[in-house]
Amino acid sequence: MSHPAILETKEAFGESIVIADPARIVDLCRHLKDVEKYLRLSGVTALDLHPAEPRFEVIYHLHSLERNQRLRVKCRLGGTTPEIDSITGVWRSANWYEREVYDMFGITFRNHPNLVRILMPIDWEGYPLRKDYPVHGYKYSYPSE
Amino acid sequence: MKHSFEDHTSTIPAVQEIPATPAAPRRMTLNMGPQHPSTHGVLRIVLELEGETIIKAEPDIGFLHTGIEKEFEQKNWQQAVTLTDRVDYLANLSNNLVYALAVEKLLQIEIPPRAQWTRVMMTEFSRLNSHLVWLGTHALDIGAMTMFFYCFREREDILRIFEMFSGQRMMTSYIRIGGLALEPPRGWQQAVGKFIRAFSSKVDEYEELLNANPIWIRRTQGVGFISLEDMLDLGVTGPMLRGAGLNWDIRKSEPYSSYEKFDFKVPVETSNDVWSRYRVRIQEMRESAKIITQALEGMPDGPWQADAPHVVLPDREKMKTQMEALIYHFKIVTEGFRVPAGEVYQCIEAPRGEIGYYIVSDGTSKPYRVHMRTPSFGNLQGLPKMLENTLIADSIAALGSMDFVLGDTDR
Question: For residue B87, what are the domain limits?
Fold first, then answer.
């Protein structure tokens, strides 16, 4: 497998991992779907490596029914307001998965048809699965009596 | 102020002024759920209707979101097993299994055959449990009330078996990292044998009630069509795909927990409607019963936990006599065991489709990140496509055939 967007390939625990260039992710995904026959997108998720930099990783799990193979594509994104192109044009199933990642990590997917929160309330503040998001505490501070 | 009779009538427009038919068919937006009994949980669907035809359906999820993925990061590895039960409360053992398999992959520990076979048997029971609840409630939605009582009768027996093995009926947490929570109890062979000998005739009963039932046939055949290409593109998995003619089952294609040693078929139907999904699940129940019978007859002897003292709690007797065992016990109980840094993705065939756990460890005693790729979330994405241009009366049958669990969707 070779494509200019692939920066690095790895094998771990019998699973293939590809580190890709986030700027050309749509290109790469189209190639993987059409040429490499990864027909299914099994899921999209993200990882927060706070306080390391680049802080975020967007992770795509692909599956080829034909060759019975799985592939993990990872893109590294830096900063506190990361952005990456949406791959909903390649696999429609990316729609909800990308919304979930946006909801939980605050990663913006450009050209997404409907990028709104999916699990949390629409007016929620903050991104719960970020490592600097508190587990305990109240949202509002009340004046003491 | 008084109105005279003449004043009052003059405000009513004459009949001929009201247009007889609207120029374009009027659209109506209908809110279904989140407390609708046929959505099997708290799912809200915004339906756009033109007469009785659904033009657009927009599912709204998140009502059962409990932040389980965040919660994982606060628990140690073994404690987190209890969270996996609560994701999909109808197939909790499947969730236990996939989590345990993923962590064991990171730990690189070998699970003894007896534990593996018991795991297979228990996950197949959990498949039966899930399919029985599905069949009962789905048939109830369509109007066959007796099915509900029949299916829950058998489900009760399965829950009793779960209780016998783990002490719990639903949130069993029976499959743990490194093996099982408890040794299979004395006399389990009799309990499982009694259930499985009777089960095949019970499935015959279900089929007798439904297969030739004209109402069931009219309400399921040709309803809820969605093409195979759309399903694959939208992330639908499991019996939905097998009902559309795709022979793909993770138990066969990527065997785990010694499934390769069992002899079973993957039922496939081609008509791609609610009926074919019903046929697939009924046949899957028979195949599951076959697997359980094989596990019952060929259950290997030996240990039921891995030989990994740094992960598995030591025997009570050894703890009182051996220093090493006491140290390991203290370390596991106070800190939990550490898992080497790395990341894995493990998937299994759950009753609803592909469950995949993506687990990242940073080498400490707590998971760094656990992502659950749940089948209900993926399947539900196919719903708008499936409901497009169908009648609103068929939407309940179509919804039910997807067999989603909202706890599994929202996590």
Answer: 59-410
